[in-house]
Amino acid sequence: MRNNSFLCSVKKRWSMDNIKSIIVLLFFWLAAGCTSSEIQKEVSLINQAESLLQSDPHQAHALLDSVKYPEELSMKQGARWCMLVGKLADSISTPLPYTYQLNLADKYFQRHGSPTEQAQVKLYLGRAYMDDSNPEKAMQLYCDALELALSDSAFNLAGYVSSYMADLYEYQNSYLLALRKYYDAAMFFNKANNKKSEAYAYFDMGKQYAFTDSLDMALANMSHADSLMLAVGDSIDIAVIYNGYGNIFFLRNNYGKAEYYLKKSIQYNPKTSAPCYSVLSRVYFNKEEYDVARMYLDYSQKSKSNNPKTHIDNLYKYSMLESEEGNYRKAYEYMKHYVDTLRMDLQRKNELRLLEVEKKYNHTKATLENIHLKKLKARIFAGIVFLILVLIIIVAVFFLLLNRKKIELLTTQKYISDMDEELTTNKVRMKKLLAEIDEEKQKNVDLDSKIKLLAENEKNVERLNALLVEKRKQLLESDPILKKMQKLAGKNIPQQTQSPLNAIDWQNIIALIDMAYPKIFRIISSSRLSEEEGKLCYLSILGFSTADISLLLYTPKSTLYKNRQRAKAKLQIPNNYASLEEYFADLT
What gap in Å lies between CA 256 and CA 246, rounded to an integer? Predict the structure, then answer.
């Protein structure tokens, strides 16, 4: 028989270890549930795109474009995605993110970003609003971005913000306001030592002066842009400046210099020379050299242009040219072609805009649906987590109460064991005193002191006996296994084929005997009793009659008698004890 205190400690350790294991497993499960594999994959795509931003921007754009719903990522990752897409829009002219995506990024950077990052995302958001034909909102964001950039001494970024503000003023035909912002941009680029952007700012200032017929100022700013661009620009940049010269000299009716600079521009950038050829045709049209004008128009139509309006405007020039030569039918056909092309171009733009609006609507709708599903899943997940936490609390409370009960039982067991030992010590002392008194009676010695000590010892034994009996009574009455046994003992179950007590019941019975009768338990455990003999002894200790024991063990009385005799022999019970019950009662 194993010691019950050891069993209790093992069970306690097993229970607490399992609770800890369950909590750790739940923690990892909850952590894993918060990040899906799909989101991890999209974050990986963003990381790859960021590494390719400079070396392979087109591949970086393809990776970022494969992130289907960036607004479903965390605020941080969604903001990263928007910033990277914005940088690609600057470098390879790809579309910006949608305004609501950039709004989310703006909110994130307002909390966690530097002033420069906040300014950058506001610039992208303002440009997105411009694409949505909302110049008022765009200008408000540009102003905020400029203030933030200057607060962080980000002069290069401040230059770009000022340039976009100037573009907006130009879009509204406010050329003087545009002129002022381009000048601000030039000053900021100068502080940032960005000479190429500074040159373009002066180039744009020259354009604004040209729009307001201030051609001398236009030429002066173009000259300043030229001096800067020659030091830092490539052939395409220089071609842009010479094109600007050519247009200004054309407006000044200085056709010789206009032709010179336009041809120089074509030499530096022959790939996209259509605008220069178009202006050359106007030079010769004004000089009434119509054949040369037609030749340059033909060159313009065959060449490429970064301005999509160049080839459409050439149709109008063909019409004017034919009209001047008296070919009115051809002039009419070119004019009709020009109007039809304008209408078709406008229709195509409207269709593309409608497609973009529809795409944005579908994307927004799908995003909202996904967000709704995500919230629903989050609520379900939160509910599951809540139920699990409640279950953990219930289990923890259960084991806490169970451990408290075990502690109480162990305390009771120790109390009974200590009292039992003290009682045994007192009984030994009483026997010794009685022996001494008998011996000293023969010697006629005064026995008053020892008789008094014996009386005190007897009282102490009676007191300990009473306490021990009361404590055992409390322990036995509160134990559920004894209640179950008492209930079963009074029942004669029909068609019974085995004992109503199972293995767990017997574990509890043995544990109860160990706690209530530790001395007897040690005696039985140290004897070589069979399983049936041991069970008979345990039930005898608890005071069950032979009839009750017969029912509880499902054993005939004749077999019980034989088992009782064998147990008495193995326990070496003296013959003066008529039964096991009497012997065990005397031991208690």
Answer: 9
